[in-house]
Amino acid sequence: MRIEEDIKLDYSDVLFRPKRSTLHSRKEVNLKRTYKFKYSNNEWSGIPIIAANMDGVGELGVAKNLAEFEIITSLTKQHDVKMIKRCSYIKSIFQHIALSTGTSDKDFKRINDILKDHSFFQFICIDIANGYSDHFSKFVKSVREKYPTKTIIAGNVVTADMTQELILSGADIVKVGIGPGSVCTTRIQTGVGYPQLSAVIECSDAAHGLGAHIIADGGCTCPGDVAKAFGAGADFVMLGGMFAGHDEGKGKIVKKNGSKYIEFYGSSSNTAVKKHYGGLSDYRSSEGKTVRLKYRGKIKDTVLNILGGIRSSCTYVGAPSLKQLSKCTTFVRVNNQHNETFDQK
Ligand code: 5GP
């Protein structure tokens, strides 16, 4: 047994140190980025935020709205060729869509079927809870061989060594985060995880050294956290809970005591596993929870609030664009992130 003594941090452990700036207004801050990916050689431009491939978030209705902001949506693994065919606006938003897959034969056949008819999709997100298995790297390799010009996202991992391994196996973008998610119970069920800010700092450094990119996935609770993820070196930030609870996710709205709520659940919660796979096998336990969120209306308002927050972070640290945010970032460690006197408990 060994203990690593150096402290690892979460978003809530730090704040940006404000810096002198010549920016006059947050209106001047450019949040758009253009990336060229290591293996696919594809170029993508947009605001580098991604809606997670979770029920109620990674949906076509969400994608349509987020594409207007040039934000990406990672569709859930339940989207098949029929659903894509039925979507009348798919050709106008495909640049901002990622197709998700697990590593099972059935799952991969679904992706192959979609790509056969719709070869325009650029992003394939190979997504499993634990990206550390040998089998996973081999799978990434085989997808790279089959699709040399697609941009491959692979995850999830939280350490530099495995980030490098996935990149060397053919991933253009590595997805980082084990256990930080809003409806994730992995840390409780297994005791496994890594504080997300440190994971992002360490994995982005490893990926950038190899000319690849990372996604900070999970754990953002407010616009300030999204800005901190970019400040820490994330190229993209993936959001589940912050994009949940809106009209466009098509969740069922229930009324209670005059308020409206939408159910939201983790992709490996009992709710999700029952719905999509008919229940858990005996040897597995659920690693996600089901919660009831206050209904939040149109996703556009939430997006504007998030983007406004990030623009403001940039002006506080003197970054004229999102591209410069991490260069302008100095974090200070804090014991207390904000004053909670009037927060609803
Ligand atoms: P959030 O933005 O809600 O904090 O985190 C979203 C991320 O949580 C997702 O992109 C995914 O990586 C992770 N996630 C979603 N559902 C589950 C689950 O049931 N269990 C675990 N361990 N992680 C989940």
Draw up the topology in text.
Blueprint: E1 14-16, E2 33-36, E3 43-46, E4 49-51, H1 60-67, E5 72-74, H2 81-86, H3 90-93, E6 97-101, H4 105-117, E7 123-127, H5 134-146, E8 151-157, H6 160-168, E9 173-176, H7 186-190, H8 196-209, E10 213-217, H9 223-231, E11 236-239, E12 253-256, E13 259-265, H10 270-277, E14 290-294, H11 299-317, H12 322-325, E15 331-333
Parallel strand pairs: 4-5, 4-11, 5-6, 6-7, 7-8, 8-9, 9-10, 10-11
Antiparallel strand pairs: 1-15, 2-3, 12-13, 13-14
Helix pairs in contact: 6-8, 9-11
Bound molecules: guanosine-5'-monophosphate.
The site of guanosine-5'-monophosphate (5GP) has 25 residues, from strand 11.
Can you tell me about this structure?
This protein has 345 residues and is α/β, with parallel strands linked by helices. 32% of the residues lie in helices and 19% in strands. The protein contains twelve helices and 15 strands. It has helices at 60-67, 81-86, 90-93, 105-117, 134-146, 160-168, 186-190, 196-209, 223-231, 270-277, 299-317, 322-325, and strands at 14-16, 33-36, 43-46, 49-51, 72-74, 97-101, 123-127, 151-157, 173-176, 213-217, 236-239, 253-256, 259-265, 290-294, 331-333. An eight-stranded parallel β-barrel has the order 4-5-6-7-8-9-10-11, surrounded by six helices. A three-stranded antiparallel beta sheet has the order 12-13-14. Strands 1-15 form a two-stranded antiparallel sheet. α9 crosses α11 (299-317). The protein is globular and about 55 Å long. The site of guanosine-5'-monophosphate has 25 residues, from β11.
